[in-house]
């Protein structure tokens, strides 16, 4: 079994991130979907292992690649903050881009609202914000992805 922690929008507030990491260890990979605000080294140290990060709209001078494509359990996964695809309005631009590129799963942040939306062609994953939630219950969130030995994926929304 592989366990992956997915977070976004920490905005230089690491208390909840540290707590979530402590509660979920051990895990195999931390994915951070942006608004890191220059604290890549701190996040890497907190994770204590493999970390993949992409910059957000508040990461003005980040040296990180704008987005990343990775493979998980044979699925093509796009990691992006989402602001280039207008995710605060709707998911249509992001959906069209992912379908054109043959993406199976897209992970994004920016809205500060969690989402696990599984469609026929595409799965949308947004862990919400680990620091500044905007959904009705105002609870800080992240997602744990578990991949079993058969490659089956389970996305679990978690609260800090």
Notes on the structure:
It contains three helices and ten strands; from the N terminus they run E-H-E-H-E-E-E-H-E-E-E-E-E. By secondary structure, the protein is of the alpha/beta class. It has one domain (about 1-160): Metallo-dependent phosphatases (Purple Acid Phosphatase, chain A, domain 2, 4-Layer Sandwich), CATH 3.60.21. Strands 3-2-1-9-10 form a five-stranded mixed β-sheet, with helices on one face. A five-stranded mixed β-sheet has the order 4-5-6-8-7, with no helix packed on it. The protein is globular and about 35 Å long. The model has no long low-confidence stretch (mean pLDDT about 95). Belongs to the metallophosphoesterase superfamily. YfcE family. Keywords: Hydrolase, Metal-binding. It comes from Lachnospira eligens.
Kindly summarize this structure in a few lines.
Keywords: Hydrolase, Metal-binding. This protein has 160 residues and is of the alpha/beta class. The chain has helices at 15-24, 40-47, 92-101, and strands spanning 2-7, 29-32, 51-53, 68-72, 75-79, 105-107, 114-118, 123-127, 141-147, 153-159.
């Amino acid at each position: 079994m592989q366990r992956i922690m997915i977070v976004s929008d920490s905005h230089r507030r690491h208390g909840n991130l540290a707590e979530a990491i402590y509660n979920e260890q051990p895990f195999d990979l931390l994915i951070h979907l942006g608004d890191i605000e220059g604290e890549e080294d701190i996040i890497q140290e907190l994770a204590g292992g493999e970390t993949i990060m992409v910059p957000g709209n508040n990461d003005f001078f980040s040296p990180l690649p704008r987005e990343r494509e990775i493979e998980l359990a044979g699925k093509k996964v796009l990691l992006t903050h989402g602001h280039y695809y207008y995710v605060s309005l709707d998911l249509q631009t992001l959906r069209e881009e992912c379908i054109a590129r043959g993406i199976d799963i897209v992970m994004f942040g920016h809205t500060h609202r969690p989402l696990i939306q599984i469609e026929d062609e595409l799965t949308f994953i947004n862990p919400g914000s680990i620091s500044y939630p905007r959904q009705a219950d105002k609870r800080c969130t992240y997602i744990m992805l578990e991949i079993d030995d058969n490659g089956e994926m389970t996305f679990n929304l978690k609260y800090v």
